[in-house]
Amino acid sequence: MLGPNASADALLTEHLRYTPLSLIDDIINTINAIVYRALTAVETGLLRTSPHQLGFGPPSAQANDENAQQQAAETSRAEIENGVHQLETLLEATVDKTFDIFEIWTLRNVLKIPDGLDKWIRLAHYENLTLPLPSTAPTPTSIQTLRQSLHASQTLSLALEAEHASTTSLLCTLHTLTSTQTIKPDPSSTHTHPTTSSAPLSFLPTSQHSTPLSTSAQFTTSQLPALRSLLSELRPKLSSLNGLVENEDALRQRLDWEAPKEERRAYVEGEARRAVRGEMGTVEGSGGDKGELGAGREQSGVEAMEGIVERGSLRDEE
């Protein structure tokens, strides 16, 4: 909540880099830490002291009784803890009361700027500044916009550098593919003449007087309509050629199928003639009178076998 001295408190906070109340709280916390260390030291010293020295020893008649000594030690420890607790409560109340007064006095007399003086105070980091700021001075919004623009520019610069490196690598690769290298002979080898190694794309023109790439691209683009028209004319012819090829394949298959028929026909005819000739020889060897009968049988047997062969051939063709 802003008080009547809010501007003075803000000026003190900016100068000290912390609020005035933080300074007073640090002082009070330091005093409390010292008080707690003192109480701990007092309690430790009392616990190390023998109960007899503190007045909690057993009577002289029970000086050698262990139970009496143990009871005296327990009583001494309880009294010490109770007393230290009471002392701690007393010191905390005293410190709180005293340092409340110290806080009020410090805020009113030390950590305070007189009324009306805060407008005339200029801190060290305000030197060479014109107050109030002119209208052309940068604002937080304009600074944020400039920061975003700078970040975008840096990102674009990194992307362009990466693209430049990639393009340089690609140009080196293309130069390697289009250049012709001369390999020097090895002194230890028998070949003394230098050899020339041609790159895969060394046939491309690389001189300054060669046709520009844009001209070649324009010429290629201009030939595309003619190529399309030729392609449209060749498609019907291609379909007709495919039909001819299919007919030729069918004819070839038919010829391949008919070839075994001709071979089978020739084989049957040959076997028939051989069988008829064997029968004729048997008839001629049996007697001269029967020669004419054998000749007639030969003629009729040959004609019968030829008829059988022709019928088998016609059946095969069907």
List the helices and strands and how they pair.
Layout: H1 6-16, H2 20-48, H3 66-109, H4 140-178, E1 180-183, E2 195-198, H5 213-222, H6 224-286, H7 291-317
Antiparallel strand pairs: 1-2
Helix pairs in contact: 2-3, 6-7
Strand percent estimate: under 5%
- Overall structural class, as computed from helix and strand content, comes to mainly alpha
Q: Enumerate the spans where pLDDT stays under 50 for 5 or more consecutive residues.
A: 283-295
Largest sheet properties: 2 strands, antiparallel
Write up what this structure looks like.
By secondary structure, this protein is an all-alpha fold. The chain contains 7 helices and 2 strands, in the order H-H-H-H-E-E-H-H-H. The chain has a two-stranded antiparallel sheet. The protein is elongated, with a radius of gyration of 63 Å.
Structural descriptors:
two-stranded antiparallel sheet, mainly alpha, 2 strands, 318 residues, 7 helices
Précis, in short:
This protein is mainly alpha-helical. 70% of the residues lie in helices and 3% in strands.
